[in-house]
Give the backbone structure.
Amino acid sequence: MIEAVGLTKRFGAKTAVDQLSFQVKPGHVTGFLGPNGSGKSTTMRMIVGLDRPTSGRVTINGLPFRELPNAQRHVGALLDAKAVHGGRRARTHLLSIAQLSGIPEKRVDEVLAVVGLQDAARQRTKGFSLGMGQRLGIATALLGDPQVLLFDEPVNGLDPEGILWVRNLMRRLAAEGRTVFVSSHLMSEMALTADHLIVIGRGRLLADMGTQEFIAHNSAGFARVRAADTDPDGRETLGRALSKAGGRVLQEPDGALRVTGLELPGISDLAHAAGVRLWELSPHRASLEEAYMRMTQSAVEYTSTEDPRAELWEQDPLALPAWEDGPSAPEVPQAGFFAPPPPGAGGKPFLMPSNPGELASTAKDSAEDTR
């Protein structure tokens, strides 16, 4: 079990984790959620002794990580899949960790097979894709067959098959009685994997409860109702009946009604009593993503705005040269360009000919006229 009590970490004037207290119990997949900058990674680093708390404490099975005998056999962690020397081969990397922890060499081949990297065991890790790096990191965490496992974004870079494999792996490890603590930003995946959630924002605890309980506490379900299109007055009649019964009715863009405050059997009875035939009556349950966004909306540190594009396609009038603000230039005739008459041309305009030979003959005639 992982237990944090009053856990606090400051970096200068910045408080990354603020009086955080929670328990991660064995036999469950516990999801660790929070916006960017909320302190999730810092908390995980303190759990495995990479950062020292400013105050408070965090223990694993009653002991700080630094005091665990042969910690690799008790705790496995994937915090940064890129924390591998690029010149090492995958098997060599795992073998070096196994030898430092007193783990048999045959365990290296076992975990390579578990994560599906047995055919890439001799490859240097600098050539690994992001997904292959994640698999190697998971193999490192499983190497000591530990009872406590921490994973920070374990499905990052994995394909759909890999994501499904990680989900089943986490649930199987928890079913074996292990403590599994998983941080992720993929709400849809957490909804399928985690059965308990710890949510933090700006370093403080926001929620510590079961996944379904979290969704129910931070969202409102509703019923979607559609009257038969063959009855033009059915929607208005049904809406009045539902409102009179205490329901809150909103019309959706496609013509259906969104009803809160009434259960589905009651809505059905009211529609029957009003003589309205229904084409749809379905419940809507909020997703984990909707509940999470509602819970953390005030704890988001980095928020985006609409891109004004800085008027990239329209030149700023203030940047135009001063001469462009004056009157427009006269149109130039398409047939040719009339230059000012040369000296001695008698004031006649000179038309630039298209043929160079004509230009030479014109110049000769002008010279004779001058004489």
Q: What stands out?
A: Confidence is low (pLDDT under 50) at residues 318-326. Residues 187 and 370 are 92 Å apart (CA to CA). The first strand starts at residue 2 and ends at 11.
